[in-house]
Amino acid sequence: MTFLAQLRAATARNQSLLCVGLDPEPSRFPAGIGRDAQGIYDFCERIVEATADLVIAFKPQIAYFAAHRAEAQLERLILRMRELAPQVPVILDAKRGDIGSTAEQYAREAFDRYGADAVTLSPFMGLDSVEPYLRYPGKGAFLLCRTSNPGGDDLQSQRLASVDGQPLLYEHLARLAQGPWNLNGQLGLVVGATYPQEIERVRALAPTLPLLIPGVGAQGGDATATVRAGWRGDAGGPVIVNSSRAILYVSSGADFAAAARAAAQAARAALNAARASA
Question: Of 23, 120, 134, 238, whose CB count within 10 A is highest?
Answer without folding.
Answer: 120
